[in-house]
Each structure stands twice: as structure tokens, then as C-alpha cells.
Amino acid sequence: MTDVGLGEDWEKLMQDLDEIVPYYEEGNSVMSFGTDVGLRRELLQKGMPEAGVFLDVGSGPGNMSAIAREVRPEAEGVLLDPLPRMLKRAAEERGETSFSFVCGVFEWLPFREGGFAACTAGFTIRDARDRTKAYQDIAFALKPGGVFLLIDLAKPDSRVKRAMVTTYWRAIAPVLLRMRLGSRWRYFADIYLTYRHLPPNKVFLEQLGQVFATVEGEKRMLDGVLMVKAAKAAAAPDETALRPSS
């Protein structure tokens, strides 16, 4: 599978994300017209296992984990993010004793094999430096039959829809952010950068399918948002082969 992701643009993205920690949620709400919370809840209600520990990768301030806890009140969660400031914000907002917090990146998860029943990623997997390795490490960390639940921006297969979604992220979203956030909007400009790195939805799902046994995708908002449930095989002859080499 061809390696895909932000590559060298990852460092710039991390720098800008670190700047928007205090108003990360406000910006997301503006850009999604307030739909981001409802879409996350829809995905988790359909896909979260009844029991087991879940891992929230690229957790940000913990929005996805908070909704997962609403959907499955007894679930234990581990929040992972590469930015210490973001993890600190998550601990302050969600409660330091409610979840576990780990600083790390998608491509090298510091967990044992098969430790999680589910992994969630809310509007964040597109931020990976290398999605190929991210998928492989997530699969490694999941139990046999475990699920990867992701929701993210997406690039429509239809040229007409793609032109409309591209125009939104390139020209309309910056105006909305500037109206709401003033000069702070500029740190959100990397969203268009991450969108540009995405393949069309069909290819995105095919790439996931090369790591996970089953992949189910649903499209929203002119196919500009993709909701995915990917499941690890219930039994694999050699699961360690999913671990990328260091």
C-alpha cells in the first residue's frame, strides 16, 4: 500500500494546532455549522462496542471521548494526542480521573497488541504524517474483531460535488472563521492543506480495506464528510505482520 499522509506538512500543522487549543471547539462548530457533535454521536451510537476499553487517537480536547462515554457510560477510555497542551485541555475539560491521557502519534502507538475493543478518530486521521502506518498501528492495538470508528473531512468522488466542497474549504470557511474568530482564524487555514492531501472517498476506503477485514462507509454533507466503521479480522494467522517496521 502506498504511504499516504501529510508528510513534511505535518510539522506546520502541529505548530498551528498548538496555537488554537483555547478555541479549537469553537472553530470546529463554526466550520461544520454546528453539525460536528451530532455526526460524531451518530457514528458512535451505531458502532461502539457494548464493553471494553476504547482508544481515542488525535483526541484533541476530548470531544469524541466525551460522546463515547455518553453512548457507553461504563466504557473506559484512553486519549492520545501529540500535543501536550491539547492533552492538558482535555484533562481540564473531561476530568483527570475520568480517562487516561497519553502523548503520542498515530504512527507509533505505545500500546500492547490487542489491548482495545475500539479506536475512535474524530476529524483527525487526515492529520497523520503517514496514514498507512497509522492504520497498521491502530489495527495492531485492537483486539481481534475490534472496530476503528472514524469520521473526517472527505473528498467526494463526484467532480461536481468535489468542486463545491473544495470551494467551501478554500474560500467560504475562512470567511466564516474570520467573522467569528477575528485574526485567530488564520491558524485554521491548515484545514484546506489537510483536505488537499486526501484522496477521493473511493480510494480512501480502499486504503483502509488493505488493513482491515471489513470497511463500511457513510457519506454526509455533499460527500464532504465520511463516517467509517472498519473492523479487524476476528482471527488472523499473523497479526504481528500488521506492525510497521521502525
Strand content: 15-25%
CATH architecture: 3-Layer(aba) Sandwich
CA(first)-CA(last) distance: 17 Å
CATH-defined superfamily: Vaccinia Virus protein VP39
Taking all Cα atoms into account, the compactness measure Rg is 17 Å
Number of strands: 7
Report low-confidence residues grouped into runs of 5 or more: none
Q: What structural class results from the helix and strand content?
A: alpha/beta
What percent of residues adopt helix (DSSP H or I)? 40-55%
- CATH first level: Alpha Beta
Please tell me the overall pLDDT. Answer: 91
Shape descriptor: globular
| Topology-level CATH name | Rossmann fold
**Main sheet strand line-up:** 3-2-1-4-5-7-6
Q: Major beta sheet, specifics?
A: 7 strands, mixed
The count of helical stretches stands at: 9
Summed up, the domain count is: 1
Q: What sequence of helices (H) and strands (E) makes up the elements? A: HHHEHEHEEHEHHHEE
Provide keyphrases for this structure.
246 residues; alpha/beta; Rossmann fold; seven-stranded mixed β-sheet; 9 helices; 19% strand; globular
Q: Outline of this structure?
A:
The chain is α/β, with parallel strands linked by helices and 246 residues long. It has helices at 10-19, 24-31, 36-47, 63-71, 84-94, 131-141, 159-181, 190-197, 201-209; strands spanning 54-57, 77-81, 100-103, 116-122, 142-153, 214-220, 225-231.
Explained architecture:
The structure is a single chain. By secondary structure, the chain is an alpha/beta fold. The protein has a single domain, classed as 3-Layer(aba) Sandwich (Rossmann fold). The protein is 41% helix and 19% strand. The chain has helices at 10-19, 24-31, 36-47, 63-71, 84-94, 131-141, 159-181, 190-197, 201-209, and strands at 54-57, 77-81, 100-103, 116-122, 142-153, 214-220, 225-231. Helix 3 packs across helix 4 (63-71). It is globular.
